[in-house]
Amino acid sequence: MAKLNWGMIGGGEGSQIGPAHRLGAQADGHFAFVAGALDHRPDAGRDYAQRLGIAADRAYGDWREMLEGERNRPDRVDLVTVATPNSTHFEITRAFLEAGFHVLCEKPMTMTVDEGEEIVRTARRTGRICAVNYCYSAYPMIRQARAMVRAGEVGRVRLVVTNFSHGHHGDATDADNPRVRWRYDPAMAGVSGQFADCGIHALHMASFICDDEVERLSADFASTIPSRELEDDAMVNFRMTGGTVGRLWTSSVAIGRQHGFDIQVFGETGGLRWASEQPNQLIYTPVGGRTQIIEKGEGGLHDEARRLSRVAIAHPEGFPLAVANIYCDLADAIRGEARDGLPGAESGLRSMAAVHAAVASARAGGAWVDARPPMFR
Ligand SMILES: NC(=O)c1ccc[n+]([C@@H]2O[C@H](COP(=O)([O-])OP(=O)(O)OC[C@H]3O[C@@H](n4cnc5c(N)ncnc54)[C@H](O)[C@@H]3O)[C@@H](O)[C@H]2O)c1
Prior knowledge:
Residues 142-272 form the GFO/IDH/MocA-like oxidoreductase domain. This protein is α/β, with parallel strands linked by helices. It folds into 2 domains: 4-135, NAD(P)-binding Rossmann-like Domain (Rossmann fold), CATH 3.40.50; 137-313 and 344-363, Dihydrodipicolinate Reductase, domain 2 (2-Layer Sandwich), CATH 3.30.360.10. It has 12 helices and 14 strands. Strands 13-12-11-10-6-9-8-7-14 form a 9-stranded mixed sheet. The protein has a 5-stranded parallel sheet with strand order 2-1-3-4-5, sandwiched between helices. 51% of the residues are buried.
């Protein structure tokens, strides 16, 4: 099968997420990396792209140049990944969708709910795929958890509890480091700091596994380092459409926690537990029964978990291959085989509505507010 052509914007040398996209896109041979505008410094971006094997005429200095350069090529890119800082996602994603390209956008998809709705409408009107990189949902054991919930193996879900709390911004003496400071500055980060950065992964995961949507929420935000305008810690209570009760804690000052993303699902007949630091294992406890460890790669897994497992049982796969699973599903979708579970623009929009709802709630002392985008009410 011929490879699809792939390009990336952002993800330059030394960036955090760039390597995961390069590994993920190319892991299964679906995509050839043929174009890029990788850095906010044009020369650095061109130079790095060429060192990664991109031809000089497709190593672009900025995204507008890439849009013009690719637009009319017979071998133009099939998919563009947007891995730039948050405030640029909307403009770049919309421009590429309008020009007829499929897009994988990093989270958060936009800065406002209006922008999110515009991306959803643009994707629908142009018929292009706009996916959002909620890559944790593509771990095989998360697909297993979702399939178990769907199959009724834990009964109706009463409660979902999730944390995405790390301690990497907990050093007050490092708070003025520019790589840290912008995340808590509204001019750069928007209305929310930690919740928009990490909390939305956890909220998406809760919706994904429970196969349900967040309907309303109540939030408590704190800036535990006083110089920070935006929150570095948040507790969010929520309710899902089907009645599930949700609890979410996200923090960047939880010193001692490393990646710190975990989720527990409590159903009427069983419970599930998963942690990103042990992603190959899903812990399952049937009511009244023994706790069991379900391992990636073992027999008897649900089809989705089996499909997205690569290497034998007990061999780690990890984050880049979870990203690769997103690219596999994208490749299938581009070739015409829709994949259930690929996070789309609707998920990006729901996250943005939840972020703005959480900010409104926190400002109103934790009042319960509608968390759905106006478009889906
Ligand atoms: N899905 C995930 O798990 C995950 C993890 C980390 C980061 N992210 C997201 O990825 C995005 C990038 O985060 P990061 O941590 O890699 O940031 P980073 O600051 O480490 O890197 C950003 C890169 O984008 C480049 N860039 C900036 N503006 C650009 C522009 N206008 N055109 C082209 N390139 C430009 C920079 O030069 C740099 O190479 C953010 O939106 C972040 O939220 C997602």
